[in-house]
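Cont'd.
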Amino acid sequence: MAYPPVQFPVPPRPSAPLPVPMPVPTSDVMPHTYRSDLAQVRALVLEEARQAGLAEDRASELVLAVSEVAANTLRHTRSSGTLTLWHDADEVVCEIHDEGVITDPRPGQHRPPADASGGHGLWIVYQVCDKVELTSDATGTTVRMHMALRRGGATA
Amino acid sequence: MDLLTTSVATVESESEPYTLVELVGEADVTNSDALREVLDAEVAKQPSTLIIDLSGLRFMDSSALHVVLRANRAMDRQGGVLALASPREPVAKMLRLTAADQLVPVYQSVAEASAG
């Protein structure tokens, strides 16, 4: 069976990590701590997405993205991480913070070979999320993932 | 209840028998070692065809995918074939995003996979 070669164009994405901490827009958002209970992380994301009215297929993509980032906490650190979720009329936002450090200057910007043992997580995040904000320094990494409620809609 | 359950059967068909591995639940980094053990054991029996039924799988992450692709390479080295069947849309999308569907044949049903 022949598989034709497929081109995977990488859309341009902001590549420089943001140098300043990202403020949480509302004061009543509580972070959830996780370590190995990724199923719980996914359930929380799905529930937030449903409450926001995100379409089911996009909700499952957001679940995948957030789960991959949370899995990186397990894969690359020995500590727990925090998950913070919120939504407004325009978007659902999920933020993961852990003590890991990303050394790749352009994380998630290139797709690793399909059978590579690692590196797919952030690629997936940048492919499915409408907007990704990522900071990483010696104190840890924060990934904030945005999914617009309206297909093709812009996020703030 | 386990997050991921696996069941294995050898299916006698009109052509060659094949090994059928059913995954039910969610496959992620927390159970990928267990999944690898199951697939390693089945690959070691050197079946000509190994079909993984994904119809009961709600979720797969890149760690679980890596385990599947590892089994795929082992089957290939042995001259066998590994195929995926009946992925739900979130899993199918993940296979497309990672280009894994270019390395492993993906069918819409076990019947199609066994005939392919």
